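The passage that follows is intended for readers who have already worked through the single-chain material. We present the inputs for a multi-component assembly, then the predicted structure in tokenized form, and finally a short commentary. You are encouraged to pause after the input and sketch how you expect the pieces to fit together before reading on.
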Amino acid sequence: MPDRFYERLERELRTIEALDKFRSLQVYPGIDFGSNDYLGFAVDAELRARTLERAQVLPNSASSSRLLPGYHAPHRVAEERFAAFMGTEAALFFNSGYDANMALLTTLPNRHDRVFYDERCHASIYDGVRAGPATSERFKHSSPEALRDLLNTGSREGACFIVLESVYSMDGDIAPIAEFHEIAKAFDAMLIVDEAHATGVLGNRGAGLVSETLSRDASVISMHTCGKALGAAGAFVAANRTVVQYLINKARPFIFTTASPPIIPALIVNVLERLSSEGTSLVETLKDRSRDVRESLKRSLKRWSVPHGITPIVPIIIGPAGEAMRASELLRERGFEIPAVRPPSVPEGTSRLRMNISLRHSEQELKSAIRAISEVEEEVVG
Ligand SMILES: Cc1ncc(COP(=O)(O)O)c(C=O)c1O
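Having made your guess, compare it with the prediction:
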């Protein structure tokens, strides 16, 4: 056994433990406020039954890459339906949002280009930017002014890409997309919008924020994960035909992987049908519920705070990391899974509980969770 290698791993693991940052995998038994299943589609019996019926005639696995026989009818249908849902010329399905972001950021910019990305972007965007060939710079969170300042400096020879999310997962805040779009236009830049937490949650029929006005603009590319509100897995890039053709030909995370089992896009087709008919009212109900939970928490909490917002991501700001961890543990003992988030995922001194509201929660579950959070505040802060 290569002893020195294992010694190194053990040493690093013990350091992580000493910093109180050791992670292990567990199956969570309590009422789930940590997942991103905002519409309850992940446990929807009707969607499951319809999809399983279809599964009877589908292979269990795609068995090869999309460019080989791994491309099955449900992949094609899901892409066509998603493009129609978004109002874009085309859409391309990836096995995950991580793959989609890696594909966009390692394939579209070349080494003469510049990529500007919001400092609070998801790790998949950071990783894509880092792995890609372009020069990159972060701009201050949701600050069009900071971005404009950066764009005004440096070379203007290559293409420019601006990358942001429409809803940020740690605060549930919404980006001023229209302002960023204005800047993209002014600087002749491409705008890439990660709609992971907006798809199924905001916009007409739950199509996200780009769908409202920007999806037909060739300078805008959006990315939509299917493992969150859509209750499935994978992700779409929605864009014009040229971008999609380019990705099919050049994106390594698309080409060099086995396509997802066809039952996944078959499920997504059923989800899109549901959103097309009921999406707008589901989105409104989710907004109402999230607002009610925020207001109840604001009324019942004494020291912890809940920022203003309209999305189902409800952060409960506690401050010290230890207190946030303790709060999450005490809630688990009471039967609620509400994860704590600490630096570096959030700024120092803003450790929090991150409570995700879903239409799968009953009124009773929401009420008892709010009561439990306020009891736990009393126990932790005194
Ligand atoms: C903003 C954002 N982008 C991308 C991803 C990656 O998506 P996926 O889980 O489908 O890989 C996530 C979540 O995991 C996310 O929150």
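Commentary: The longest strand covers residues 313-319. Residues 28-42+278-381 form a domain with the Aspartate Aminotransferase, domain 1 fold (CATH 3.90.1150.10). How closely did your sketch match?
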